[in-house]
Amino acid sequence: MTLTGLIKDKNETLPGANIFISDANGKALTPLRGDSSDVVTGGYILEDVKPEDYVTVSYVGYKKNTKKVADLGNSGNTIRYDFILQPDTAELQGFEIVEYQTQPTSPTIKKDNNWLMYSGIGLLAIIVGGITYKAL
Q1: Is the distance from CB of 50 to CB of 69 less than 8 angstroms?
Q2: The model's pTM
Q3: C-alpha distances in angstroms, 67 versus 42, 98, 102, 129?
Q4: Where do runs of H (alpha helix) occur along the chain?
Q5: Phi/psi at 69 (nearest 5 deg)?
Q6: Strands 2-8 and 83-84, sheet pairing
Q7: What local confidence, expressed as pLDDT, does residue 88 receive?
Q8: From the centroid of its chain, how far is CA 57?
Q9: Taking Cα atoms as reference points, which of 84, 5, 16 lies closest to residue 49?
Q10: Which residues contact 94 (CB under 8 A, 6 or more apart)?
Q11: Residue ranges of the chain with per-residue pLDDT less than 70
């Protein structure tokens, strides 16, 4: 069966949102099965989903939304469902720039108790409290 629709908040679509098959708690399964919403329309298509599957949608600055496919309706081989995400009001207590580079270097990984940073050519990703912040 195919699941299709939009990913949005109360006002507009959210292009580039993550959508993936998960467990009931929103944890991605291995191997990862998912996609990102369209960068123009915010639309998504997930194929080969089963009624017993759970689907999770996530987007930076919003709370994750996990639904069981069987609860989204049943219209034959295709189910249309629009996910509406709620803003996440959690705030970082602050952050410190620990490295700044102007020239590309070999990829590096730095880790501390509550954060992980990966940097390489054209990529910086910081994971703080389980939330990934990326700059490409």
Answers
A1: yes
A2: 0.66
A3: 18, 38, 43, 24
A4: none
A5: -55, -40
A6: parallel
A7: 86
A8: 6
A9: 5
A10: none
A11: 75, 90-136
How is residue 85 written in tokens? 């995400």
User: Using only C-alpha atoms, what is the Rg of the chain?
Assistant: 17
Do 46 and 73 form a contact (C-beta atoms < 8 A)?
A: no
pLDDT of residue 29: 87
Q: Could you tell me the two tokens for 42? A: 């915010």
C-alpha span between 63 and 26 (Å, rounded): 11
Q: Which two tokens stand for residue 24?
A: 């009931």
Fill in the amino acid letter for 78: T
The domains found in the chain, sorted by start residue, are 2-84 (2.60.40.1120), 91-136 (no CATH)
Please state whether the peptide bond connecting residue 15 to the residue before it is cis, i.e. omega within 30 degrees of 0: no
